């Protein structure tokens, strides 16, 4: 029996894995250019961090966490998202006592026990950016613009930005009560009724058509925003418009995590079917306090790398994944020549030329086949006679032209050719 990757997970293999790395780099390039610093947090955390941070009534916490006791009996959870960990790290190390906002970006695996389907995995990859410790609509707009730039730099066109405000501690309670009153009057199943009592906003996000059909006259948060939230939201909208970032107001956008206040947004892609969100985020002014910290108004997002890759595929943007792994490929015949080639390949790499060689004692034919597959432009052929003459044959694999170069000069010659 051979093993299979667990349900809901998959492997990234070359050459697609190289392409997904490039996608990840492109998505974070704009935030790095905007002065965000890299943060790496543990893949597992105290379970309570997510229970309190993400929210006890969310699907993520109630149904999807990979929670396990460690050998000392602590309850740990594989991170389902990055924001709670970043806030924990900022508070733990006192980063918020320095210059604000603290701007951080991250990249890594997330784990959610979801119903597995195309675009929805149990192990997936996000990049994220968080700006902590400032309440400023320009910061919300900056982050949204940076995410939009990441997507557009990849050539994606079929992306829609949905924008909403969820209000704050001032205006949300009254809205929540109005929504609850409306929802209590509907004919809903028991689980949804329970949700109406715990987190009525999440009911608006219910994807089932029979539930959506009943939500027609539901009160909208946009109609209940206090003056401060309304002004804040208008400023975010104006800044996005000025930056040339198109968006759609979506008064039903609530998102699946409980920590949001004011600005919320999601990027969706038209080529992905039901799992259309390629990124999302928003402001979370109360999260620090929920985790025992001081008030630390903050905003951030996470983008789904796997889904962005699928989105690119659906727009035909990935092209043929060229193997093109190395520039030079060594083919040596005979034991002495092989030893010399082993050193030569190392010298080439030191000199900044990417190089590989035939391994496994292949004959000339097999080794040349390897050279062809490696994507290399040049093959270096070293036989016993070449070695005796302290020379090597440099074959241009695109033209089949072959020249003899002294071994002492070949690194320099190839360096000149590949640059
Ligand atoms: P989220 O909306 O849960 O937000 O996830 C962000 C993105 O991760 C989604 O838009 C999607 O592209 C990707 N994603 C989520 N679940 C899966 C899955 N099961 N399979 C594949 N991709 C997935 C957050 O995680 C928040 N922490 C974002 C944030 C940062 N808010 C403020 N700061």
From TrEMBL:
Keywords: Aminoacyl-tRNA synthetase, ATP-binding, Cytoplasm, Ligase, Nucleotide-binding, Protein biosynthesis. Its EC number is 6.1.1.21. It is found in: Cytoplasm. CDD domains: HisRS-like_core, HisRS_anticodon. InterPro entries: aa-tRNA-synth_II, aa-tRNA-synth_II/BPL/LPL, Anticodon-bd, Anticodon-bd_dom_sf, His-tRNA-ligase, HisRS-like_core, HisRS/HisZ, HisRS_anticodon. Residues 22-323 form the Aminoacyl-transfer RNA synthetases class-II family profile domain. This is Histidine--tRNA ligase. It comes from Nonomuraea corallina. The lineage of its organism: Bacteria, Bacillati, Actinomycetota, Actinomycetes, Streptosporangiales.
């Amino acid at each position: 029996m051979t093993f299979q990757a667990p349900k809901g997970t998959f492997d990234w293999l070359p050459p697609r894995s190289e392409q997904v790395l490039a996608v990840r780099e492109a998505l974070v390039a704009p935030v790095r250019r905007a002065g965000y610093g890299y943060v790496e947090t543990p893949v597992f955390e105290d379970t309570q961090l997510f229970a309190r941070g993400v929210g006890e009534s969310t699907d993520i916490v109630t149904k999807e966490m990979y929670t396990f006791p460690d050998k000392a009996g602590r309850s740990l959870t594989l991170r389902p998202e990055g924001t709670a960990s970043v806030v924990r790290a900022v508070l733990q190390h006192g980063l918020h006592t320095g210059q604000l906002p603290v701007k951080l970006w991250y990249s890594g695996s997330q784990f959610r026990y979801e119903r597995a389907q195309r675009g929805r995995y149990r192990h997936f990859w996000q990049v994220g950016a968080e700006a902590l410790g400032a309440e400023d609509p320009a910061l919300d707009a900056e982050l949204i613009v940076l995410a939009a730039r990441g997507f557009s730099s990849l050539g994606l066109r079929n992306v829609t930005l949905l924008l909403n405000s969820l209000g704050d501690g001032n205006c949300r309670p009254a809205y929540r009560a109005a929504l609850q009153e409306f929802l209590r009057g509907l004919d809903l199943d028991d689980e949804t009724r329970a949700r109406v009592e715990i987190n009525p906003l999440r009911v608006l996000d219910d994807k089932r058509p029979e539930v959506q059909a009943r939500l027609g006259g539901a009160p909208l948060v946009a109609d209940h925003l206090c003056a401060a939230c309304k002004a804040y939201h208008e400023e975010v909208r104006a800044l996005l418009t000025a930056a040339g970032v198109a968006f759609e107001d979506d008064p039903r956008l609530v998102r699946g995590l409980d920590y949001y206040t004011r600005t919320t947004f999601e990027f969706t892609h038209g080529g992905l079917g039901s799992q259309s969100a390629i990124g999302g985020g928003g402001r979370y002014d109360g999260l620090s306090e929920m985790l025992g910290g001081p008030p630390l108004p903050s905003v951030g997002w996470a983008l789904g790398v796997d889904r962005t890759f699928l989105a690119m595929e659906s727009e035909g943007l990935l092209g043929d994944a060229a193997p093109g792994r190395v520039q030079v490929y060594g083919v040596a015949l005979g034991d002495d020549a092989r030893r010399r080639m082993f050193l030569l390949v190392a010298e080439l790499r030191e000199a900044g030329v990417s190089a590989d060689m035939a391994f496994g004692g292949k004959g000339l034919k097999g080794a040349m086949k390897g050279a062809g597959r490696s994507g290399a432009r040049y093959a270096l052929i070293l036989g016993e006679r070449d070695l005796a003459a302290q020379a090597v044959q440099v074959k241009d694999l695109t033209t089949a032209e072959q020249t003899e170069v002294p071994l002492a000069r070949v690194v320099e010659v190839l360096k000149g050719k590949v640059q």
